[in-house]
Amino acid sequence: MAVPDPATLDSVAAHAGVSRQTVSNVLRHPDRVAAGTRERVLTAIRETRYRPSLPARQLATRRAHAIAVRAERTQDGISGLVLDAFYHGLAEAGQDNGLRVLLYAQPADEAAEVALIDELVHTGAADAVVLTATSAADERPAHLRESGTTFCAFGRPWGHDDEPHDWVDVDGAVGTGLAVRHLLDRGHRRIAYLGWPEDGADPSTGTDRRRGWLEAVGAASLDGPPVEARSLNQAAAAEVAVAALLARADAPDAIVCASDTLALGAHRAALAAARSARPATVVGFDATPVAAALGLASVAQPIDQAAHLCIDLLTGRFEAPDRPAQGLLVAPVLHLPS
Amino acid sequence: MAVPDPATLDSVAAHAGVSRQTVSNVLRHPDRVAAGTRERVLTAIRETRYRPSLPARQLATRRAHAIAVRAERTQDGISGLVLDAFYHGLAEAGQDNGLRVLLYAQPADEAAEVALIDELVHTGAADAVVLTATSAADERPAHLRESGTTFCAFGRPWGHDDEPHDWVDVDGAVGTGLAVRHLLDRGHRRIAYLGWPEDGADPSTGTDRRRGWLEAVGAASLDGPPVEARSLNQAAAAEVAVAALLARADAPDAIVCASDTLALGAHRAALAAARSARPATVVGFDATPVAAALGLASVAQPIDQAAHLCIDLLTGRFEAPDRPAQGLLVAPVLHLPS
């Protein structure tokens, strides 16, 4: 594109017939400017091809006014909705707080990711990062704290409570507890759990969801010990695992699942095992359209709320860099089939 | 955060023991710098807390070195994978070309979206936008051309070929044609189509996918006219529509679907109608884990390729603003169940 003579704040103001401060307000605090005036200033900005406001503001404030978040390389399409909703929530809450949201492509490993984040932050492209998919073995938080990078994790510091940082997470145990109580209310008495292979070992999303089931089932003092199965997060594998569960003498009459992907497999196994009898009731996790399509209850994560809280923690951190680390757990709800 | 004395390109260079040009290269063309040197410079950048490089470069080049793309407000969780893959592809291809990818939250309507894009571009936050979810009634392309905003659409200018702009799209007709030929090869002779309510009216993704089925079925000169049904993109509605189709005297023995969401409903109707006989074969669209879980063939869009081509068109446009508009159609492939 040809580069015309650069417009200035003053030439835009003259063009729009407003003060220089009004132009500045439109760029920095558009919510403080009446819609009509804002529209006139934006038109003047366009017509004068005024451009450098954001970079100039970045230089003046020494802030990028942007945060970075990872675009996942591959993903479970059934629960993909969760991350999409998280992106939208971040973008929306970010816009409300004058923060852009930058996507970076998931690097090959955690070391490469930390290096990329450092580059984004220390070259002024972003002020902070929202870490997703945290785990007990996650090395990113320690590295980011070491390099002085501002971040908020979507996910708890599983097993690393001695290395505090800001985080937001969904209380999975509350979710599976809701699922169990829903099933008890409907008369189920043998409520099994279908989790992931790693559940029950290191602290993780999986152990948390399993714990909610175990505690709720224990509190109900049902007959017989709790029954459970484990499966990779694939519907076909889940179907095999649940078929085995349903072939046992103490077969469950309901199954709480760690994900809707598992629930899809469990539902298919339940239908196949039932023949003419009433199939076991399956409850999923993530309240995706798949669960809705199958007529299954499913635990819904308040993803939009979690995204907004991540932005709240980051903006609070920008204002008070030395305040203690905060962790926020938000409670899910149970979506019933319509 | 406390603001230390600002580091300069020279102080970073001295700290790293390299030339000022090498530091500049790390920031502008990291691919031209050996990994070891790059690492040393990034460490020096971090240790000296050098920050303003990106904003300074933006001011110097009068470019944001960023593109914007919309974060969808809500979405079909079954095909959500497609947009996630698109985001990842944009972020990856963008990084390869020195372009950041900014997310903006989907505004209330197209007018608000165009205003937001204008603001992003004309305040220097982004150089261009990738438009998603284009349609025949879409007013965004005309508005963006009018305001001189650089953009590339992921999706054809349905019915607006007289208003040319850069776009990339997936050839849906090729995809459904592949599905029909796969079914013919497997001996099917009554291959129906399950599309969306709007298919067959205005040019759209739906009419394109339907056309591929119709042409391939017509070319096979089968007995009897082609049979089809329409449904909202919801599995439950699809199940009802396909149940009616399968109750007809000329019931199909195979169904090509416009989406995996429709395929999920079609598959359930086929299983319910079949009882002891062989159920109708269902082919989906988008090759999601749902189709894989159900053992269905499904058309896979080359989303990563499409994202990379969008970035290619935009970088080409930055270099040659007056070159003619380009449209690129990429061909999908058929994923068979394993």
Automatic annotation (TrEMBL), chains A, B:
CDD domains: HTH_LacI (cd01392). SMART domains: HTH_LACI. Coiled coil: none annotated. One of its GO terms (molecular function) is DNA-binding transcription factor activity. It comes from the Bacteria. InterPro entries: HTH_LacI (IPR000843), LacI/GalR-like_sensor (IPR046335), Lambda_DNA-bd_dom_sf (IPR010982), Peripla_BP_I (IPR028082). Residues 7-61 form the HTH lacI-type domain. Transmembrane segments: none annotated. Keywords: DNA-binding, Transcription, Transcription regulation. PANTHER family: HTH-TYPE TRANSCRIPTIONAL REGULATOR GALS (PTHR30146:SF109), LACI-RELATED TRANSCRIPTIONAL REPRESSOR (PTHR30146). This is DNA-binding transcriptional regulator, LacI/PurR family. It comes from Nocardioides alpinus.
